[in-house]
Amino acid sequence: xxxxxxxxxxxxxxxxILMLFxxxxxxxxxxxxxxxxxxLDGAITNAKTAELALNGVYANLSANAYDSRDIIxxxxxxxxxxxxxxxxxxxxxxxxxxRFWPVLSxxxxxxxxxxxxxxxxxxxxxxxxxxxxxxxxNRKEExxxxxxxxxxxAYERLMLRFAEHWDLNSTYGLIIRNDLPSLDNVKKERSTxxxxxxxxxxxxxxxxxxxxxxxxxxxxxxxxxxxLKTRVLFQMEQYTDCITLADEVIGSKNSGLAPNYATxxxxxxxxxxxxxxxxxxxxxxxxxESRINTYNTGKWGPSGSYLNLVADDPRFDAIIGDExxxxxxxxxxxxxxTNRTIKKLVNAAxxxxxxYLRMAEMYLIKAEAIYRNGGxxxxxxAPIADLRARAGAPEVPHATQAEIExxxxxxxxxxxxxxxxxxxxxxxxxxxxxxxxxxxxxAEAYQKAIDSGESDAEQYRVRMxxxxxxxxxxxxxxxxxxxxxxxx
Length: 488
Known about the structure:
Strand order of the largest sheet: 1-3
Distance between the termini: 44 Å
Strand content: 5-15%
Shape: globular
Order of helices and strands: HHHHEHHHHHHHEHEHHEEEHHHHHHHH
Number of helices: 22
Number of strands: 6
CATH architecture of the largest domain: Alpha Horseshoe
């Protein structure tokens, strides 16, 4: 089905080769010449080895099979759409970040390490491919396009989680590492947010020009690059250009909304709605057991606020699973505990992709961009109407500002729930009141601060503002003392 599935052994082999060149940490390079300054000619010398190396770069997509659970969960916990049972307080199911995510703490180490590993490997392959000339047809240029797309995606994910992406004037942008690593560039300052966005856009322009046409969701394509650019323009609040490009993506002949919402999670390969995703093959299914054990056994489930939101929606049965009896060992012996499961995150084949871009997101971006650009409420609601019609859901009120905001925000929470942090980013855009309404634990913590007095309440308001993003991990700051995000 995909290069990552059919060539698993080969890309593992090439990853081992790449690791010889890219795995050194700053600590290990202080007393000797870094291995990654070695001659790459011995590793990537022809089209075949370049394709294998490309597989290795794809394999760095922001989570391997085991860690995919945590990539999915953090945004949902912060949004308050996902919770663990309150009585579940010990055992392996309770990791430290489960206690903190709901109140906006947690660790971004997984995202940081995977994305910067991808960026580093993409840089190496871009350098190595220059001297290779035995490709068939336009394949060399296509690989260059794919690498620029993957690097842009990695930077965009880092931007959303670690940089003040909502403020083009902010100095809290990304650490841009587009050069091959050496002793001279271990320490590097953060770029501004505006500079960081420009790096992403520059990569996407190359990707749009050189990527292959869309044929499947596991390969970078011109369509995927345009979809990612649509999202970046949306984040930059360049709404007019965003709407134009969203229309181009939505109008693509090669992709479109799946006829049935549930199909995305039961038979995803039968639809072209997925524009780009991280696929998992049979050899990786054992590592995906953590996702099944978490989402299909009641350890982590939908929150009460989310169940109330989706209760009457026709998508309920595709999103929410059965109420299951949960192992009593983590509660009181003899007492029966039950919890709802999250059905859309597991399937019988245990291979559900990590979805980075799908067509429904383009509809939601278009709707919100029209609204934020001062457009007519009916025009802003039209893409929402299309998604709800696909689901068989009735029209919701949208004639006033409060109604159109609720219609758009709630559609993000229902349509894109539990996939890749979409709920949290939407709630943050619409404001803290929306977030507090969804995240019951955060609201409870804030109320305790209010009850303690105005000083504590003000401190908690500052905390909620600062914790919109997470801290730069110590794995970076210990060797590259960049300015940390506010509040950490």
